[in-house]
Each structure stands twice: as structure tokens, then as C-alpha cells.
Amino acid sequence: MAADNKDLEASKAQYKSIDLMGVEKYMQELWVKSQDVELYTQVHGNKDLPTVLLLHGYPDCHRTWDKQVEALQQGHQVVCFDMRGAGRSSCSTQPHAYRIDTLMADIEAVIDAVVGKQGRVHLVGHDWGSVIGWSFITEEYFAQRVISYTSMSGPHLGLMLSWARRCVLSRDIVQFRDLAKQLMSSWYVAFFNVPVLPELLVKRFGLSAWKYALQDNGVNKTDPYLDISQEQLEGFTLNSLGLYRQNPLSPPEVPQKNAIKVPVQLIIPTGDNFISDKLYCYYGEYVQRLSKHEVDAKHWAHHSHSKKFNRWVSQFIQGIEQEKDKRVA
To answer: What pLDDT digit, counting tens, does each position of 190-243 carry?
Structure first.
């Protein structure tokens, strides 16, 4: 489904800064119109360099990528944006506004606004950003806009359910145990589908609970990312509950074997308390070109192990770009 991308850039502003080493850095703000919402978008670095688009998860906003923006903009144009209903992006009142197909159209709108309708990007996703990214590279219409994909802590929803079925049909006690462990780790999905209660608890205890959850899963207590207000937290948690209420019961189809042609780098935090590493055991059957890295970390590994994460992303993109150059030559 293509987005209606007329008047993509509702407004824009550009800023220049100089870091401690005397290096000039540029950041452009865009408000990208996609259907009935405006998406707050930041563009960092040189537009003539390969473009990296970062997709955040829940409960996060574009600032979760600060360490990646800082490191990657030296050799790339780096783009991050607040998903609809999160951060500084506007909300939608439409039914099914947080379905994956709608969110994929948002990603397309951002790509069009930054690199043009024929432009392509290197995609990086975490948590729900990774979940949506998998669908984006699986659907042929959207996949043509992606040069490479780096995924962490967010599976393809269809493949997740397919893995669960395999576990049940295997009649293997080890796989039963793996499935049971993942179901227990996903308790919050059922909780977020309870009417009204999650909203009430977020408004009453949200900020302290959010800080505790992030600190317990890879974000250092001194990280500036944690310095937000209750109002800001509500701005990127309440509306986005639609992710959990509109997608798990109507997941995307399981892709055909070897149907995913985009090169994929899978970064797997082995200590993730929400997503089991076992979920990815069959991905080689669906992705034509798959590489994996394991890291002894928890869910927010791009915070706790940012240098390693950034290095893997940069090296992966560099390798893909070098292959492109060879084909052109």
C-alpha cells in the first residue's frame, strides 16, 4: 500500500553545531505528512553519504538512537523519526491507525521525504521498529526501497507465530519449554490489551516504572535519555498501545521460503528478557542472505553495548556499499 505523499514536508528547519573536536555537524528537522499524521523527523549528516533510517520501538521515541546518531553520522546520513502517536509526531484517530501496513506507509513517506521517491536506505530496527521493519522488507513493494536491514529484539510477527506452531507440533519437551518461556516473557502483550487499566497505570506510575524497566534492561541510570517528564512519557506510550491492540491477532502472513532478498543482519541480545533468541532459529529458511551476531546484553543493547552495535551496523553497511560499487564498476 503506497502512502499519499503529497506535501510531504509540512515544514523544516536546519541547525549547525560544532563538536569538541571542531567538526561541523548538521541536523535538519522535518515534519513529514503521512496520511492523517505528521511525523517528526531528524536528518543528520551529509546527504551525499549512504542513508541509514533508524526505527524505534515501544516504549521509546527517536531519542533512543542518540548514541547511534552520534557515531554513524560520521560516515552516513542518519535519519530517525518518532513513530505516529509517539514523541513529537501527531496522533491518528482513524481505526486501525497502528496496524503494521499503516506504519509501513509512514516509513515510505519518510524515505520519500529524505531521499526522494526513487531513493533507497539502509534500515535499522529495534523492538516494534524491528517488527515493522521485517514486514517492510518482506513485502515486495516496500522492499525495493531497502538496501540492507539490521534487526534487533523484534521478530517478524508471522514467523513468531509459525515458530510457536512448530514448537507445539514438534512434541519435543525442549521446544515446549522454549515456547512456555517466551509466552511468560510476553505477559505484557495480554496486559496492554486490557481496556483502560494500562492507561490509568501509566498516568499514575508510568515514569518510575519506565525508568526502572529501562535501567533493568540495558540503559544506564545516568543516560540522558531517562531525563524526561511524565507528560513526555505519556506522549510516546499511551497512543502507541495500539501496536499491541491491533497487530498480534491479525499478524502479517508468513513469507515464502527464501523470499526475503534484502541482506539482513540479525543482532541477538542473549539476555533479552522479552524476546527469546530461540525465535530466530528458522530465519535462515526465509532470508536469502542472513548474518547473525550475538551479544551478552539485554533488550536495550544499543544503549548498553552501543560501540559494538554501532560497529556491526557500520561494517555491515560498508560491506553492502562496497558490493554495490563493484557491480557498478
So the answer is: 999 999 999 999 999 999 999 999 999 999 999 999 999 999 999 999 999 999
Residue at 17: amino acid letter: S
The secondary structure of residue 196, as a DSSP letter, is: S
Taking the domains of the chain in order of start, what are their residue ranges? Answer: 9-328
Q: What is the pLDDT of residues 132-170, one digit of tens each?
A: 999 999 999 999 999 999 999 999 999 999 999 999 999
Neighbours of 86 (CB within 10 A): 26
Annotate 70-96 with DSSP letters as a single string. HHHTTTSEEEEEPPTTSTTSPP--STT
Cell numbers for 120? 533507497
Give the Cα separation of 150 and 313 in Å (integer).
7
Tell me how crowded residue 121 is: count the other CB atoms within 10 A of its CB. 23
Length of the chain: 329
Which residue is it, cell 567538526? Answer: 23
> Dihedral sign, CA of 130, 135, 138, 139?
negative
Phi, psi angle pair for 79, to nearest 5° = -120, 135
Residue whose C-alpha is closest to residue 104's, from 148, 53, 164? 53
Count, in order, helices (H) and strands (E) of the chain. Answer: 12, 9
Rounded Cα–Cα distance for residues 245 and 258 (Å):
30
Q: Does domain 9-328 have CATH number 3.40.50.1820?
A: yes
Q: How many CA atoms lie within 13 A of 322 on its CB side?
A: 6
- Rounded to an integer, what distance in angstroms lies between the CA atom of residue 113 and that of residue 184? 41
Please name which of 93, 94, 42, 47 lies closest in space to residue 68, comparing C-alpha atoms. Answer: 42
